[in-house]
Amino acid sequence: MLATLRKFPATFYVANTMEIFERMAWYGFWIPFPLYLTAARSEGGVGLGDVERGVIQGVGTFILYLLPVVTGAFGDKFGFKRTFLLAYLVMIPGYFLLGRSRATPRSSSSSSSSPSARHSSSRWSPEPWPGSRTRRPRRWASASST
């Protein structure tokens, strides 16, 4: 097995490492992005509804599937090394600025007296943010009390 792995050139490992880090950066953005879009403005979000969030994510996904056609033609014309250089010169500051952003949704402990009242739609109620280490199940009302 090691002999087979040694047959690959160094550029194979460089390209795969770059791809892994690019994927981690992408999913590191794509996972909290809907939370940011739908969070209330008072919590640092945009305050959009689910429909608007869906449209933004749908159009964004369409553009992402269309971009390889355009960037592939760009790469064919100017060479892949220049294209990679340009791509990373655009991506690095973008991801850096995203990481430095303070506009992330956060729950505040002063909005309600109990955690289960703030998170009534979830089965699990986290401790007040920050510093939560444990989660406890929310008590369900018995059928006889309704």
Overview of the structural elements:
This protein has 146 residues and is mostly helical. The chain contains six helices and two strands. It has helices at 2-6, 10-30, 33-38, 50-78, 80-100, 115-118, and strands spanning 124-126, 135-137. A two-stranded antiparallel sheet has the order 1-2. A hairpin with an 8-residue loop joins strand 1 (124-126) and strand 2. Helix 4 runs antiparallel to helix 5 (80-100). The protein is elongated and about 55 Å long. The protein starts with a helix and ends in a 9-residue tail after the last strand.
Which descriptors would you attach to this protein?
146 residues; mainly alpha; 59% helix; elongated
Describe the SSE topology:
Elements: H1 2-6, H2 10-30, H3 33-38, H4 50-78, H5 80-100, H6 115-118, E1 124-126, E2 135-137
Antiparallel strand pairs: 1-2
Helix pairs in contact: 4-5
- Described by the principal axes of the CA atoms, the overall outline is elongated
Question: Would you report the number of β strands?
Answer: 2
Walk across the major sheet and give the strand order.
Answer: 1-2
Summarize the helix and strand pattern as letters.
Answer: HHHHHHEE
N→C terminal distance? 65 Å
- Counting H and I runs of at least 4 residues, what is the number of helices? 6
Low-confidence runs (pLDDT<50, min 5 residues)?
A: 109-129
In percent, how helical is the residue content?
Answer: 55-70%
Chain oligomer state: single chain
Largest sheet: 2 strands, antiparallel
Q: Output mean pLDDT.
A: 77
Q: Give the C-alpha Rg.
A: 22 Å
Q: Which band does the percent of strand residues land in?
A: under 5%
**Alpha-beta classification:** mainly alpha
